[in-house]
Each structure stands twice: as C-alpha cells, then as structure tokens.
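Technical annex B. To support the medicinal chemistry partners, we prepared a structural model of the target in complex with G3I, based solely on the information shown next.
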Amino acid sequence: MKINKLILLFVTTLFLGSCSNDEQGSTIESEVETPVTVKASFSYTISATDPYVAIFQNTTESSFQYQSLWDYGLGEGKVNVGSGLVEVRYNEVGNYTVKFYAVYNGVTTEESKTIKVDENGICPNGLCGSTSSTSLKDAATTFAVGNITRSSWVIGSGKYIELLKNEFNSLTSEYEMKMNVMYPAQGSYNFSAADAIVSFAQANDMYVHGHALIWHNATPSWVENFSGTDAEFEAMVKAYITTTVTRYKGKVRSWDVVNEALEDGSGNPLRKSVFKQKMGDDYIKKCFQFARDADPDVLLFYNDYNMASSATKRAAMFTLVDELGDLIDGVGAQMHISYNGPSASQIKNLADGVISRNLKLHFAELDIRANPNNDLTVLSNDRAKAQSAKYKEVVQIYNSIPLENKFALTVWGVRDNESWLIDFWGNADWPLLFDSNYNKKLSYYGFLGGLQ
Ligand code: G3I
C-alpha cells in the first residue's frame, strides 16, 4: 500500500505541476512557474572502419534554442562543436566518461555515458571482449600477409613481436638478407642476422621471403671493386647464390633473386651494375639458374618498383620476365605508392600481366604515402580516410586475383615512425598500418576491409 502511495504521490506531483505541502500535509497550489529545462540526450555508434572511433550524435529533443557542450572524457573539458555528428578516436585502452550538456535559460542538464576501450577497440554496449577482432593474417585466407623485420627486433618479447605474430604470417628481412650483410668480405659469410630471422619465423610458423640475393644498392664494396677476371666474378656470384640458397633450403619459401635491374630512364634499359658489366646482359638468367640449381623447390622472384605507375617500366619488366622462361615463379611489385596514385586500373594492369603469364604476384613492399606533396604536418582525418581507402583498394585488387597467382602481400614496415620513406623523402609521413604507439590506424581497417 505504502509503495502505491509513493507512486501516487509521484504521479500527483507530476500531474499538478508545482505543489508544496505545509506542515499539516494539506496541499497548497502555488503560482511559481517551473523553469523550462531542455533534457540533454546523446547517443553514439562505433565507426565501421575504425573500432577505436566513436561517432557521437546529439539526440536532445527540444524546440528551444539551447547551447550544447561536449566533454569527450579526454581531459579537454567542455567543447562547443555545434550540431551534427562528431567522430572521436580513443587511442588508449581504458574507460572514458563522456558527458553531453544542454544549457537553456540558465539551466544546464547533462547526460553521461562511459565508453570502454580494450585492445580490440571500443567495446560494443560496454561489453568488452565481445568483439571478434580478426587479424590481418586470419582475414587473408588465401595468401600470406607479410611485414619486414630486423634481427634485433625478433629477440625477446614486447608489443612489436606480439603484434607481428598476431597480424602477420610472412617475414621479409628489411636489409639483413642482402649481399652486403650476408657476404661482407670475399670468402667470409655472415649469416647470423639471417639465421636469427629464419629461426624466429620457423618458431612462429611464419614464412620467410628472402630479399634480395642480387641488388645494385646492397652490393658489398669488395664485389663492386672485384679484382679478378669476369669468369672469376661469375664463379664467385654462383658460389654466393648456391651457398646462400642451399643454407636456407626448406626454411626460406622464396627469394628475390634480382631486385631493381631496370633503369627508370627512357626505354628502361638494364642498369649498368657490376653484375651486368662482368657477367653480361644475361646475368639475371644466370643468377636465376644458380638459385634454381641450389633448390628446385624454392620460389624465385624478380622484384622491382613503379611496376604499376610506369607502363613502360612494367613492359620492360615483362620482357625481362619472359626471357627467364620457367626459371621464374613470380613477380614482386614493390608497391611503394601514395594515397592518390597509382590508380586502380594501373594496378590491375600490373596484376593482369602477371596472371596472363601464370606467375605468382607478390605485392612485396607496400606502403602508402599520406603526404607525397608535403602539404601536411599531421595526419588529418580526411587524409587518413583517403589512405585507408587506398589500402582497401590495393588489398581488394590483390584479393581478387586467381588463387594460383596469389602468394603474399607484404607491408614495408609496422609503425609509421619506422618507415624508410621518412628519411628517403625527408618529410613527415604516416605510410603504414600502425601509429608510433602500435595503435591500429584507419589504414589498418582499410586493409582489413579489403579482405572482407
Ligand atoms: O640497424 C643498423 C644500425 O644498427 C647501424 O648503426 C646503422 C649504421 O650503419 O645501420 C642500420 O642498418 C641500416 C638499416 O637500413 C636499418 O636502418 C642499414 O645500414 C641500411 O642499409 C638499411 O637500409 C635499408 C635499405 O633497403 C638498404 O638495404 C632500408 O632499411 C630498407 O627499408 C630498404 O628497403 C628497400 C628494399 O630493400 C628494396 N626496395 C626499396 C626499399 C627502400 O629503399
């Protein structure tokens, strides 16, 4: 009975508007006006392309002109952002109290909600652990997803190794499986770094893509200044390739036998490397033969850049590839590209040429410059979205090629701040999938979206 009374009192109070009771309990109707208040209300959804981004919406229902203020729980206090949807990224794991205020006629109302963020992003309905975070390698069911590494990075533990094992299933040595590191002095090999990378990969069920046996930019000086005859030079190269490929037989799935043999200039002739000069124009075929003789099962690739953006260089590459006959298994297109090019059709032309030759295609060194014209000092949300869309486009194109032509899609770096591009171009850029704190960027979700 008592409860009913309570409810009745509550309903009565509401019905009669403002009333008060004197000590005797009788009700006295008062003339006092109850100030109109605007009841603050908001909702949010989680971004479809970035689970760390909340999209906030003011859902306050009122015909009165009120002021709205947000506090996103990021320590920035109240901000006035006007109307419309607002996207906010929560980079760190944790709980954030978000408040929305409606101010009218001197009266402020607020609504407060807690946003919980775990390693998968914003927890739907505050239920953490309920999101199924697919990793890149798990989402790519028909080809390997690779990244580069260094021997110093695969020792011990930490966020890099955890992320590398979780997201990728193929490794390319960024520089330690090149001739200048593995063969620093004549007759004296140094495979310690390569061994560390290969051992780590084997222990973690990851492929290794050997990069690169012959590259004019990673040729030790003793080779550049070789003092013997051309025949002795060729014998040295044969011994180096045979020794290296034999050492990693059954451990390294594939090798870039030759990297960047073509000039960028008109006609894209062969570079005048010491290998061309001392072994002749057919040095590439000879090197492929040395590798094939050392390991009949290893996949052999030719690797180069601007394969999508330059039709002439692509044509020169296919001429080179056609001359190798069945010695070659695949083409590595480095894919150091930008958010605004090359176009999808240019990339598809590259893929079509490889497919028509029944070769494997490796997008071998993918990174996507967000700041090719150096017009940004920070990665804007718009540019991040454009970069994410480009990653999605590239991955979709790769994911659409026939199964028999699939091999791997390798990203050339984990964290933006470690990208070779920054030193190479000398300006700020954010070309990769993770930021400097190992947080997934929009580009990560673009890559993942290309796999759906
Ligand atoms: O890590 C060592 C450091 O311990 C040492 O103090 C320092 C001084 O010599 O060298 C550091 O290693 C450098 C390494 O990058 C890591 O920064 C090597 O000297 C340097 O040669 C190496 O450069 C690599 C370059 O190829 C040459 O091998 C870049 O990391 C790598 O991103 C770049 O990758 C190439 C691909 O192989 C082919 N396609 C183009 C691409 C970009 O140039």
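Notes passed to the chemistry partners:
Residues 174-175, 178, 211, 218, 259, 334, 365, 420 surround G3I (CB under 6 Å).
The chain has two domains: 1-126, 134-450.
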